[in-house]
Amino acid sequence: MEWKKHFETDRLKLRPFVEKDHEPFTDLVEDRKVVRFLSMPTLEHLKSTKHLKDYTLFKTPEGKEGLTLLIRKKEDGEFVGITGLRPNDDPDTYHFFCALQPAYWLKGYAKEAGQVVFRYAFEEMNARVIKAGAEGSDIASVNFLNSMGMRMNTLAKPSLKSTIKPFELKKEDYGKRH
């Protein structure tokens, strides 16, 4: 599937990630405040355009594709961050992610972009479940995932070393909210 979708909200434009986005993406992942809670490859690995492209395309060996969207403010084109879906090993399941520049935290941009991604996942990609994870001490991310309708999956068995809290939203629960 080729991602040519562009999305707009009242304040944002979201479009597929392309190679020319290498610079704003690497700037984002160089910010320790942004990546301290994210599980990402090393920055040196991402600075290679080929590796960055591979990382952001999210394709499984079976051919299941994910989606990475660049987020910009509609008003002035300023780079806000990235959001999207990584394919999951489970059929019809995707892993949601969102990373914003600190200047845009706590202003509703993550929720606005996330709503676009969730709607597309459930209505166009026929996702059955969207999963996400948040570091237990990252209260803002935990609150954000809850505000998106996601609930902590208490049945999931994280590794003993992990402090990541697993969240999920099922299509039928999404349908009750929309």
UniProtKB/TrEMBL annotation:
According to UniProt, the name of this protein is N-acetyltransferase domain-containing protein
Q: What is the lineage of its organism?
A: Bacteria, Pseudomonadati, Bacteroidota, Cytophagia, Cytophagales
* A GO molecular-function annotation: acyltransferase activity, transferring groups other than amino-acyl groups
Where does the N-acetyltransferase domain start and stop, copy by copy? 12-174
Q: Which branch of life, at top level?
A: Bacteria
**InterPro entries reported in the protein's UniProt record:** Acyl_CoA_acyltransferase, GNAT_dom, N-acetyltransferase
- Per its UniProt record, what Gene3D superfamilies does this chain match? 3.40.630.30
Q: Which PROSITE patterns match?
A: GNAT
A Pfam family it matches: Acetyltransf_3
